[in-house]
Amino acid sequence: MRDPNFFLQAAFPAPHTWQDHSLAVFACTSKVTSIYEDDDDFVEKYQRAFRIMVFETERGEMMRGYVERVAFAPLELEGRRQGAIGFLNDKPKWENGDNAPATVAGSPAMFLFQLFAEVTFPFDDEPEPVVDEGLYQLFLQNNVYFFGGTTPDSAVYVITQKL
Q1: Ramachandran sector of residue 155 (left: φ over 0; alpha: ψ -120 to 50; beta: rest)
Q2: How many domains does the chain contain in total?
Q3: Residue 118 confidence (pLDDT)
Q4: Potential cystine with 88: which of 17, 73, 113, 115 (Cβ 3.0-4.6 Å)?
């Protein structure tokens, strides 16, 4: 992945099956990695534009040499709270019908968390694509659903749905 940028991290609390683990989302924001749906290699290129890391929360540390581009802002992942960007440890709120996978990496799939549509991330510079100057759209401002297996693993299945 070219120019990976850290976007968010979610720590799973008790009694979640993934408790004591965190999931970090990285995405490429370089124009060089622009992808188009009419491209024959769309899926392969799209999958290379993102990375998801799962790790034991207490063992997490900042990558050496990483240059921060996303401006720090605390994010709340709680259901139904006004101003929240999504929710954790609940059932997905599907926009266009249930698309939950049956399995993830051979394990029964479980819903991890959802980011609401139209969430933007402030940047210190101006990557593409932008909504307004200095804001980045992760997954093009769609609803984003994260699923994993019954044990913490970096094999995470991500589904997006347009409003």
Answers
A1: beta
A2: 1
A3: 74
A4: 113
Give the pLDDT confidence score for residue 130 in this predicted structure: 46
3-state secondary structure 1-24: CCCEEEEEEEECCCCCCCCCEEEE
Block mean pLDDT (10 aa), the chain, length 163: 72 88 82 52 66 90 72 55 72 91 94 83 56 59 89 90 82
Classify 48 as helix, strand or coil: helix
Report pLDDT for 33: 44
Cβ of 147: how many Cβ atoms within 10 Å? 20
The values of phi and psi at residue 43, to 5°, are -60, -45
Q: Which domain holds residue 22?
A: 4-161
Q: By C-alpha distance, which of 27, 50, 157, 154 is closest to 101?
A: 157
Nearest to 135 by CA among 82, 88, 71, 65: 71
